[in-house]
Amino acid sequence: MRLNNYKFVKKIPWIYYFSVIVLLLTIFLNHQLGKQLFPSNTYYYATLIVISLALVYVYFAGKYFEYDSEGSLVVFLNKGAILSEFISYRTKIYEIKREKIKDYKIRNLLIYKRLTVFYSTKNTDRNFRVNISMLSPRKIRFMKLSLDKIIDKNKANL
């Protein structure tokens, strides 16, 4: 089974750049209007904090995710959505043999979702984490079904 969140992630750079423009425009207009854009400085700073937090969230949670369980390897790909065409510094690719996957866990932290996959190597058990925040609930359900099927097959072979 192959799934990804490309349709949603292709909108992330525009959201990010729009937020940067709104942040800069807010600062510029407030300075040009003699600090009369907002009734008090509290509203101004609250607006700056909210926009800045939105920028940080979009930067860290807005990642492209791809899952491929066709073939003998299960592939998890996670890469940044902003500047990923130019600089590939946030790309993480995990390729694991189907037989090595032991378990998985999905943590849902309100606005951030993380998939942790537990697998075995020759001597130890290891895990890795990938960001699935921008993956739709339907695709998460399909991925759970696929991983459950792989884990059940692995437990039956033991």
TrEMBL record:
Entry protein name: Uncharacterized protein
Transmembrane intervals: 12-30, 42-60
Organism: Psychroflexus aurantiacus
Keywords, alphabetical: Membrane, Transmembrane, Transmembrane helix
